[in-house]
Design brief:
mainly alpha, 3 helices, 42% helix
Length: 69
């Protein structure tokens, strides 16, 4: 099996994943198609959903002036 390097933008990758989601839900899905889907559907695995932190306080901003001279 030969490997290819495909360059895609984030938007293009997202569109391909959305299209493939419809096909991988079938129980007779092609194993190569499922493998390709798992390789490009990476953002769910790398970036888990964050939790809200309602106790976070923004620190005070202290402006300072740099004096020349």
């Amino acid at each position: 099996m030969s490997k290819h390097k495909i360059v895609m933008t984030t938007e293009e990758c997202f569109e391909v994943v959305q299209i493939l989601k419809n096909y991988i839900q079938d129980k007779n899905v092609d194993k190569d198609l499922l493998s390709a889907y798992n390789k490009i559907d990476v953002w769910d695995k790398k970036y888990p959903n964050s939790e809200m932190n309602y106790d976070y306080e923004i620190p005070m901003f202290y402006d300072y002036v740099v004096k020349k001279g």
